[in-house]
Specification:
It is a single chain. This protein is of the alpha/beta class. It folds into four domains: 15-123, GTPase HflX, N-terminal domain (Rossmann fold, 3-Layer(aba) Sandwich), CATH 3.40.50; 125-189, no CATH class; 206-368, Rossmann fold (3-Layer(aba) Sandwich); 370-435, 2-Layer Sandwich (Alpha-Beta Plaits), CATH 3.30.70. It has helices at residues 30-46, 70-83, 96-106, 113-124, 128-142, 170-204, 220-228, 271-276, 278-286, 301-315, 334-339, 354-369, 382-391, 412-422, 427-435, and strands at residues 15-22, 50-58, 87-90, 109-112, 209-214, 245-250, 256-261, 289-295, 322-327, 346-348, 372-378, 393-400, 403-409. The strands form three sheets. A six-stranded mixed beta sheet has the order 6-7-5-8-9-10, with helices on both faces. The longest helix is centred in the middle third of the chain and has 35 residues, at 170-204. The chain is elongated, with a radius of gyration of 26 Å.
Length: 441
């Protein structure tokens, strides 16, 4: 057993011992198991829990009835009594039967990692969409485990109210929860419809969208604030920001784009949560560019990057153009900085370094706007000229007889759109469209 004290002198309702099971399969990567437990401590503290102690059980496989084995349950019961604990938090997901058995043996609240994350999200949700998504995730998680939730059910604020259903009303409550899930899904579909309309309007105006994604506490919100001077909540804790925040950002050439901060990812992010937050996370899928923000100061950065890539793949956004940003480089040693690298294009930055931010703005502009091109258009074609200003970055204009010559920075996809409009007037556009077969111009 490994224990770590985390005592704080203040009154807190939940006083917990944290428990992790390391199976033979997980033992191959003990560092990851230890990191997961450390992360559970941070999650518990973020949820307002006083962490009394951590406990690790090494076992070939999980116990179907007691999860950690009956002998370890008795050891946990004694530690809870000695320390005055009223909650046991497990680093892995528990079945309804395991919750029921542990609750009966320990006479304390039993919470697993998924419930803890859902609790934090419930505390953080502020917008109507966020509240709907969290409640939907909670109920989806709760429904198959309802018979094992005795004492825990009354804990789910924002879920089904503040009362526990009790074992005698299980079927009534199951019907109630299923009905509520259907109702929430309908509400969420309406939110998704509005979001889709908003995206379509934004696309018609030619506004580029850039999404910040990354592991929780990687510094996405700080970066959003520094790049846009946005008034956003920033705190050094997990899931400090839950609801997506979008702000306009001006590129060096003067064009404005929309920069969106998405919810942070974490190891074993509950599937119900990913499903419920799909509408929010799909901001990344709709983005023209994804900025993957990485905490370069942590030893677990490669693992955190893997988690983010897995969630992006689940969303279907893994093939989007990405730029990896190794943030917090200012707290790394020179040796650590030199060792940092990634596949594809990346930058090493500090969100508080203005030179780094300016360099980042230029790279974003280059990726979104592409190379500069010249176009010759009759001066009376106002609709085409308007389109050029809308989807490109006009650098120079010159009058040449009855024509206007524009020097425009435009990306590949928008260049093709523009070239089709210009085909009747610009010989270069005619030739390049003939040669265009999906290759870069």
């Amino acid at each position: 057993m490994k224990t770590t004290s985390h005592m704080v002198e203040k009154e807190i309702d939940d006083r917990a011992v944290l428990v992790s099971l390391v199976t033979q399969k997980q033992k191959k990567n003990e560092l990851l198991a230890e990191y997961s437990l450390q992360e559970l401590v941070k999650l518990a503290e973020t949820a307002g829990v006083l962490v009394l102690e951590t406990m690790t059980q090494n076992k070939e496989t999980k116990d179907s009835k007691w999860f950690i084995g009956k002998g370890k349950v008795e050891e946990l019961r004694l530690r809870l009594e000695e320390l005055g604990g009223n909650t046991a938090i497990f680093d892995q997901e528990l079945s309804g039967a395991q919750v029921r058995n542990l609750e009966a043996a320990l006479d304390v609240k039993i919470i697993d990692r998924t419930q803890l994350i859902l609790d934090i999200f419930a505390q953080r949700a502020k917008t109507r969409e966020g509240i709907i998504q969290v409640e939907l995730a909670q109920l989806s998680y709760l429904l198959p485990r309802l018979s094992g939730q005795g004492k825990n059910l009354s804990r789910l604020g924002g879920g089904i109210g503040t009362r526990g259903p009790g074992e005698s009303k299980l079927e009534t409550d199951r019907r109630h929860i299923r009905g509520r899930i259907d109702e929430l899904k309908a509400q969420l579909e309406e939110v998704v419809r509005h979001r889709t309309l908003h995206r379509e309007r934004r696309k018609k105006t030619g506004v580029f969208q850039v999404a910040l994604v990354g592991y929780t506490n990687a510094g996405k919100s700080t970066l959003l604030k520094q790049l846009t001077q946005a008034d956003v909540y920033i705190e050094n804790q997990l899931f400090a920001t839950l609801d997506p925040t979008s702000r306009t950002m001006e590129l060096p050439g003067g064009k404005e784009i929309v920069l969106t901060d998405t919810v942070g990812f974490i190891q074993n992010l509950p599937h119900d949560l990913v499903a419920s937050f799909r509408a929010t996370l799909e901001e990344a899928n709709e983005a023209d560019l994804i900025l993957h923000v990485v905490d370069s100061s942590t030893d677990m950065r490669n693992e955190q990057m893997r988690v983010v890539e897995e969630v992006l793949e689940e969303l279907g956004a893994h093939q989007k153009e990405q730029l990896t940003l190794f943030n917090k480089i200012d707290v790394c040693s020179q040796e650590e900085r030199e060792m940092i690298s990634a596949e594809g294009e990346f930058l090493k930055i500090s969100a508080y370094n203005q030179e780094d931010l300016e360099r980042l703005r230029h790279v974003i502009q280059e990726k979104l706007m592409g190379e500069s091109r010249e176009f010759r258009i009759p001066a009376d074609k106002g609709d085409i000229i308007s389109l050029m200003y809308r989807i490109g970055d006009v650098l120079e204009t010159e009058v040449d007889g009855e024509d206007m010559v524009f020097k425009v920075r435009v990306n590949k996809d928008d260049y093709v759109k523009l070239a089709y409009q210009l085909i009747a007037y610009d010989q270069q556009a005619q030739q390049e469209l003939q040669d265009h077969e999906g290759e870069s111009y």
